[in-house]
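User: For a reading group we're discussing how well predicted structures match intuition. Take (northern house mosquito) hypothetical protein. Before you show the prediction, I'll give you the sequence so everyone sees exactly what went in.
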Amino acid sequence: YHKIRESDVECVPTCVPPCSNGKCVSPNICECFHGFADSPEVANQCDAVCDPSYANCDNGTCLAPNYCKCNDGYMFQNGRCVPNCDPACINGECSNPNECACLDGFVKN
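Assistant: Thanks. Here is the predicted 3D structure of (northern house mosquito) hypothetical protein, as structure tokens, for the group to look at:
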């Protein structure tokens, strides 16, 4: 615990290292802000949480609560990182970055 500069009577907990995306509630114990959870790797760090029903970050990284940064070759669409094909697939679906899978009855030209 340490004293607050402006106060001679109030002491607050100290977290070392300081809490990231959370509040120090007891010595070296952080309470994560809404949308964040304890990091399994780093002490006193709270990592962003992406709820798969809103932001499925397979093929990407959760950077902020329910916000994904998609890997190269993917784009965020309808709540998930999906492969991107440029040019777009005609009579097929983009199955991997710049790779089209033809619909039944169609072949690649």
